Amino acid sequence: MLFKCYFLILMFCGLLTDLIKCQTLEVVTDNELLDLCRSENQVVALFTLKDCEKCKKYEETLTQIREELVDSLNAWVVKVEGSNLVHIYNPAKEPALVMFRHGVPLLIPESEAVNDEFLIDMLLNNRDPIVKELNDNSFEHLTQASTGATTGDWFIKFYSSDSIECQRLQARWETVGAKLKNRVNVARINRYIGGSITARRFSISQSPTFILLRRGVMYTYTSSDYTIESFLKFVEEDYKFTVKGQVPQPKSTFDDFVHMCFDVLRENPLAWKLGLTVLSVILLCLAALKKTSKSSEYKSKKKSTKSSSKKIK
Q1: Three-state SS string across the chain, please?
Q2: So what's the pLDDT on residue 151?
Q3: pLDDT digits (tens, 9 = 90+) for 6-24
Q4: Where do the domains of the chain lie, and which CATH numbers do they carry?
Q5: Domain Thioredoxin spans what residues (predicted)?
């Protein structure tokens, strides 16, 4: 009898432990999170702080749907407290809910993060990265920009790998893509690696730069507000109040080469100053050589004239 009671107590403790685990999120460190993102296809991470009421609301909502995420997506659902990584995904910092799909982050807006129905819908419908990666070879074929964009509207971000701002925008840009899904194509193109010809075609000189291609017309996003809400408002309404631009035609090889040379000189002022200095030195040397040559020729002629005069005498 005593043995049976002991056995029942152990079973109860085990069930209680499992229940507690189901109602709490596993806490991981920054390094553990990075390892998960590299090894797992789906990772949902909640960035929180201790003694944060808003963070608790996020955690309660995520905990409610944790089992469904595990069953439907085979996802890891974890929590990171006081992370040094949060600013990469959300400029507002904690709380931040981020879903990593094959390592690509998607920032969940607050309206979805605190509503279990909206949250599960957002996560299940965006299990794969949505932003399209363009390059010089695929840009015109996919966007058909110069022929009227019959493939639909395109909201494109020109970025560069060395820009910290561009790196921090990735999670928000994925969210923009998720919000505009099936309405507007959201894409990005590296203006240095693989997309330099296209960047020169559109006269892109800084990272990030955003353009909207809509019905054969180009609109440039000029605001410094890089929030998800601002991007969405621009695509849905504010583009109407932006100056319309003509979509530039693809450049010829020669025109692109000339543009590339100007870009190199503009972005590397020391290069053209050094080049100008070297050119000046070369011209001075040539001028000095020419002067020396003329002087030698004059002396030679003078000697020849004197010699002729002596012979005549």
Answers
A1: CHHHHHHHHHHHHHHHHHHHHHCCCEECCHHHHHHHHHHCCEEEEEEECCCCHHHHHHHHHHHHHHHHHHHHHCCEEEEEECCCCHHHHCCCCCCEEEEEECCEEEEECHHHHCCHHHHHHHHHCCCCCCCEEECCCCHHHHHCHHHCCCCCCEEEEEECCCCHHHHHHHHHHHHHHHHCCCCCEEEEEECCCCCHHHHHHCCCCCCCEEEEEECCEEEEECCCCCCHHHHHHHHHCHHHHCCCEECCCCCCHHHHHHHHHHHHHHHCHHHHHHHHHHHHHHHHHHHHHHHHHHHHHHHHHHHHHHHHHHHHC
A2: 83
A3: 444 444 434 333 433 445 8
A4: 23-125 (3.40.30.10), 132-253 (3.40.30.10)
A5: 132-232
